[in-house]
């Protein structure tokens, strides 16, 4: 998908996309920082959009690894399917259903979770349910990395994970944050 098409999707569904731009390269790199790609075999991505961060994950993922990428928009899921990588499982579903898709690939837990879900734009109850599901299904020692354009929902991650480290990513339009948590 082009930047222009993503903009159109954002304008059509701003209530769920939360933005009209997708993550730039520096933000994608910050989103997957702290992931140990030498040992990771199961990575879960929440709010994957057209797969802009997913592609960075796939570039570094072990040949036997899997990425489960959650996205609610059918059009954006079709863009991800077009990537055509057998390690990618496109979950056209809401992100609180992590357990179902881990079961499908026979994984006990996710090694790491990357999220760009726009929690500030979603009902608080849904947001809390997704973050709780992410925490429950992450292995001990795994990272939860959250991309955001505001820090409004930082308390969600503090409640689930305790300590949250925040990094500002200025080389993105608009400048963004990545919040890093560890289980
Ligand atoms: C800010 S965009 C991020 C897209 C892409 N990952 C990026 O970094 O540019 C957030 C995405 O989360 C998706 N989304 C919103 N609510 C969701 C939910 N409950 N479950 C899964 N995806 C959701 C939206 O459709 C949107 O594509």
TrEMBL record:
Task: Please report the organism this UniProt entry assigns to the protein.
Answer: Neolewinella aquimaris
Under the heading SUPFAM superfamilies, the entry gives: S-adenosyl-L-methionine-dependent methyltransferases (SSF53335)
Its recorded name reads Phospholipid N-methyltransferase
Q: Which Gene3D superfamilies match?
A: Vaccinia Virus protein VP39
Keywords for this entry?
Methyltransferase, RNA-binding, S-adenosyl-L-methionine, Transferase
Cite a single GO BP annotation: methylation
Alphabetically, the GO molecular function entries are:
methyltransferase activity; RNA binding
Origin, by domain of life?
Bacteria
């Amino acid at each position: 998908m082009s930047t222009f098409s993503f903009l159109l999707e954002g304008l059509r569904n701003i209530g769920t996309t939360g933005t009209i731009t997708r993550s730039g390269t520096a933000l994608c790199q910050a989103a997957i920082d702290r992931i140990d790609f030498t040992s990771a075999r199961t990575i879960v991505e929440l709010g994957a959009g057209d797969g802009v961060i997913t592609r960075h994950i796939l570039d570094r993922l072990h040949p036997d690894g899997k990425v489960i990428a959650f996205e609610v928009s059918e059009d954006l899921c079709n863009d991800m399917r077009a990537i055509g990588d057998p390690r990618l499982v496109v979950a056209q579903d809401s992100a609180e259903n992590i357990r179902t898709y881990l079961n499908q690939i026979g994984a006990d837990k996710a090694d790491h979770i990357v999220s760009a879900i726009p929690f500030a734009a979603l009902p608080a109850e849904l947001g809390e349910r997704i973050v709780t599901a992410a925490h429950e299904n992450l292995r001990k020692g795994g990272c939860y990395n959250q991309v955001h354009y505001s820090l409004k929902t930082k308390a969600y991650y503090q409640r689930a994970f305790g300590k949250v480290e925040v990094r500002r990513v200025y080389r993105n339009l608009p400048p963004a944050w990545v919040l890093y948590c560890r289980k």
